[in-house]
């Protein structure tokens, strides 16, 4: 990259310009991270919801398969327990996403 002529014959230090570019990239990544983390969190919740269907179709043992069998056999405590575990999992994932967004959001520093 050619250097521009500066009045007085002094050249601006390249190190300062690199630090400014690095700082700008850091700020841009923080701005991009907020919607990206939100999207990935929603996709993770959708993935966990899909586990119930996948386990039922393929007959894999797991919480989704157990939930479906409990529903068909009218096992109310099992349905309540699996719904509670899945619900707590969603709450934990959403809380972790909210904490990550709060830490990364550049507007939250003010």
Give an account of the 3D structure:
With 110 residues, the protein is an all-alpha fold. The protein contains three helices and no strands. The protein starts with 13 loop residues before the first helix and ends in a 6-residue tail after the last helix.
What are the SSEs and their pairings?
Blueprint: H1 14-58, H2 63-72, H3 76-104
Helix pairs in contact: 1-2, 1-3, 2-3
Question: Which features would summarize this protein structure in a list?
Answer:
mainly alpha; single chain; elongated; 110 residues
Short description:
With 110 residues, the protein is mainly α.
SSE sequence, one letter per element: HHH
Number of helices: 3
* Main sheet record: none
Averaged pLDDT? 80
Q: Distance N terminus to C terminus?
A: 37 Å
Strand residue content: under 5%
Low-confidence stretches: none
Radius of gyration: 25 Å
Helix content: over 70%
Strand-pairing-aware structural class = mainly alpha
What is the molecular shape?
A: elongated
């Amino acid at each position: 990259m050619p250097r521009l002529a500066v009045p007085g014959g002094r050249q601006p230090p390249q190190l300062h310009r690199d630090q400014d570019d690095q700082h700008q990239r850091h700020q841009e990544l923080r701005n991009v991270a907020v919607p990206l983390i939100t999207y990935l969190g929603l996709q993770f919740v959708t993935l966990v919801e899909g586990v119930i269907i996948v386990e039922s179709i393929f007959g894999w043992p797991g919480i989704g398969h157990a939930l479906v069998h409990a529903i068909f056999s009218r096992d109310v405590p099992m349905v309540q327990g699996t719904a509670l575990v899945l619900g707590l999992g969603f709450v934990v994932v959403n809380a972790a996403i909210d904490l990550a967004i709060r830490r990364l959001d550049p507007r939250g520093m003010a």
